Amino acid sequence: MSISVTQRALRRSSRPALRQPASLGRRRTRAALLFLLPGLALFAVFVVYPIVCSIWLSFHHWDGMTPKTFAGLDNYRELIASDTFYVALKNNLLWLVLFLLAPPFGLALALYLNQNVFGIRLIKSLFFAPFVLPGVVVGLAFSWFYDPTFGLLKLIVGHGIPVLGDPRYVTYGIIVAALWPQIPFCMILYLTGLTGINPEIIEAARMEGARGFALLWHVILPQLRPATFMAVVLTVIGALRSFDLISVMSGGGPFDSSTVLAYFMYDQAIKYYREGYSASIAVVLFAIMLVYIVWQLRRLVRTES
């Protein structure tokens, strides 16, 4: 009898202990949701809502003033039949391919600057300076650099080359100008990653005989995978949404030869008041970015797992 009474007492005393972790977990979940709620609300208002409105607007004809009229897929049909759309898409792909030179060059600069010598902070500041310049300043500086009458390129080559006036060269000239600040941005990402590398792993690899490229490929780069992911993703997004330098340096010309999807979208909305058609271009650009980002995230998750 005494044993059964003792067992009942133990069961009663153990019940609150079993309930406490569950209630504690619910309180923590509730607290986390409350902390996330302001950020989720801002994200919904300033990101999700504009995306939904742009998608809905792409199915309408609208000049920004008169009432909207439903157009169905007319904007997308016109977009597919437009020659300028394919020129912009080709230029976006060219931007994407050449802009991916920024991460390896940024890594090379980061490896060079990741040393403790006298004056290295000043050198880092000089390398990082192009990134803090506004895009308009970079565009104007390179416009003067390319000028065929008095530009620095004329003094280097010996004769004037109309880089921004020739459809064959204009896109390449603007991409070179865009790479000038993008490479220091990737350099900073890699420098931040290099500071978090465990030096004991590097020393252990050197004791095992790892040197040069083998040390970089098998020891350093695997630890820089998060920095590489951020550098590649942000570089691709920057290539796909390139706008400011094109607007400053060429205005999409000559003859729409340097236009990209972002500038084509702006051109239709601001100059021609075709808000629905511009929204369809934005939806296509958003879909391209979304596909790439999802692919990169899945690839990163698989690699980490």
UniProtKB/TrEMBL annotation:
InterPro entries: MalF_N (IPR035277), MetI-like (IPR000515), MetI-like_sf (IPR035906), UgpAE/MalFG_permease (IPR050809). The keyword Protease does not apply. The chain crosses the membrane at residues 33-59, 93-113, 125-146, 169-192, 213-239, 276-295. It holds the Pfam family BPD_transp_1. One of its GO terms (biological process) is transmembrane transport. It is found in: Cell membrane. Residues 1-22 are annotated as: Disordered. It is a multi-pass membrane protein. The keyword Transport applies. Keywords: Cell membrane, Membrane, Transmembrane, Transmembrane helix, Transport. Residues 88-298 form the ABC transmembrane type-1 domain. Its main location: membrane. GO terms for cellular component: plasma membrane. PANTHER family: BLL4140 PROTEIN, DIACETYLCHITOBIOSE UPTAKE SYSTEM PERMEASE PROTEIN DASB. Belongs to the binding-protein-dependent transport system permease family. This is Sugar ABC transporter permease. It comes from Trinickia soli. The lineage of its organism: Bacteria, Pseudomonadati, Pseudomonadota, Betaproteobacteria, Burkholderiales.
